[in-house]
Amino acid sequence: MEVSNLFDDVKRMNKRQFIFQVLSFGMIVSSALMIWKGLMVVTGSESPIVVVLSGSMEPAFHRGDLLFLTNYPEEPVRVGEIVVFKVEGRDIPIVHRVLKLHEKKNGTVKFLTKGDNNSVDDRGLYAPGQLWLTKDDVVGRARGFLPYVGMVTILMNEYPKFKYAVLACLGIYVLVHRE
Amino acid sequence: MHSILQRGNSILAYALSVLACLTFICFASTVLLNYVTDAKMNTVKVVVKNVPDYSASRERNDLGFLTFDLTTNLTGLFNWNVKQLFLYLTAEYKTENNELNQVVLWDKIILRGENAVLDFKNMNTKYYFWDDGNGLIANKNITLTLSYNIIPNAGLLPNIFAKGRHSFKFPMEYTTTRM
C-alpha cells in the first residue's frame, strides 16, 4: 500500500469510524496487558516469561532464548533446579542453577547458585556480604524453554530507535487500516 | 497485482507459522515420555575435616572429602527433542541445624551425540562438600543420588532422579593430616 493511499483511507473515514479505530487499538493494548497479568496470576511469578541475556548457562541456554517460569509457594526449591533471581543493586534478573541448599525445620531455606558455564559459584555476583539466596530473592523457577524467540526483544533493547520505529509503524497501521 | 511487500509479508507469515507448528509437534511428541533410568554408585574413600570456610562465614565448618564410583547408561534418554543432559550427583542428609541439606558434589554436561555411557572409578568430587555447621562428623546417613535436568530443543525442563542410590556414613573422628 502506498503512503498516499493510506491517508486517503483516513480522509474517507468519518468521525465514528475514526473513534472505532482508536477503540480497537485500545483493545489490542489492553488485551496484551490482560494476558500478561493473567499469566502472572496463573504462574505465581512476577515475570512469567524471561529472555536469557547472558551466556552463563551455555550450552543449555543461549542469549535470546525464552524461559517460562512458575513460582508456586508450596513447591519447594531443590538442588539442580534453574532459578531466576534478583540481586540488590542489579536491575537484570539472573538465571542460574541451585548448587547447595540448607532448609531449617521451620521451613526457612537458604541456597547458593552457579551458572553452568561459570567456573565458580555466584557469591561474587550477590550483594556485598550476601552469602546465600532466600525464597524472597526468587522471581521464578524455569519450567519451559523456547529457543531464539527472545532475540526480537534483545534487538529492540539494544537499538531503541528500531523499537520506536516498529511501535510507530504498528500503531499507525492499526489506526489507519480498515477491514 | 501483488506488490513485493505483500508477497514478502505472506511468505514470512507462512514460514513463521510452519516453524511454530513444527516446534509444537516436536514438543508434543516427547512430552509424555518416561525419562527414568538406572544408575549405580558407590563411595570409595570418605573422610571429614574441620576447617575454616573462607568462602563463607570463616567459621570452622565440617568439610567432607569423598571419592565415588558411578556407572550408568544414559543413551536411551536422548531423542530428537533432547539437546543436552545436565547430570548432577547430590548428597542429601539431615543435621541438627537443618532438616534438609542438599549439596551438589559433581556435575557433567552431556550434549546429544556425545558419549553417554559413563563408568567412573574413584572419581574426585568437583565441588567442596561444605556443611552448614558441624553436621558431617559421625553423620550416619548421607544419601547420594544421581539426577539429570533434560534441556530440550523446545519444551519442558524436567529434573529427574535416576533409580538407584547409595547411603554412607562419615567417620567418628576428624582427619587432621593433609591428603
Automatic annotation (TrEMBL), chain A:
Ranges for domain Peptidase S24/S26A/S26B/S26C: 36-120
UniProt KW keywords: Endoplasmic reticulum, Hydrolase, Membrane, Protease, Signal-anchor, Transmembrane, Transmembrane helix
Keyword RNA-binding in record: no
Keyword hit for Ribonucleoprotein: no
Ranges that cross the membrane: 18-36
Membrane topology label: Single-pass type II membrane protein
Gene Ontology molecular function: serine-type endopeptidase activity; signal peptidase activity
Enzyme class: hydrolase
EC id: 3.4.21.89
One record GO biological process: signal peptide processing
Gene3D superfamilies listed in its UniProt record: Umud Fragment, subunit A
GO cellular-component term (any): signal peptidase complex
Family membership noted in the UniProt record: Belongs to the peptidase S26B family.
Stored PANTHER family: SIGNAL PEPTIDASE COMPLEX CATALYTIC SUBUNIT SEC11
Protein name as annotated: Signal peptidase complex catalytic subunit SEC11
UniProtKB/TrEMBL annotation, chain B:
Superkingdom as given in the UniProt entry: Eukaryota
Subcellular locations according to the entry: Endoplasmic reticulum membrane
Membrane topology type: Single-pass type II membrane protein
Keyword Cytoplasm: no
Transmembrane segments annotated in the record for this chain: 12-36
GO biological process terms held by the UniProt record: protein targeting to ER; signal peptide processing
PROSITE patterns (alphabetical): PROKAR_LIPOPROTEIN (PS51257)
Gene Ontology cellular component terms for the protein in this record: signal peptidase complex
Entry-linked InterPro entries: SPC3
Keywords from the named record: Endoplasmic reticulum, Membrane, Signal-anchor, Transmembrane, Transmembrane helix
Family: Belongs to the SPCS3 family.
Function text: Essential component of the signal peptidase complex (SPC) which catalyzes the cleavage of N-terminal signal sequences from nascent proteins as they are translocated into the lumen of the endoplasmic reticulum. Essential for the SPC catalytic activity, possibly by stabilizing and positioning the active center of the complex close to the lumenal surface.
Name recorded for this polypeptide: Signal peptidase complex subunit 3
Organism: Phyllotreta striolata (Striped flea beetle)
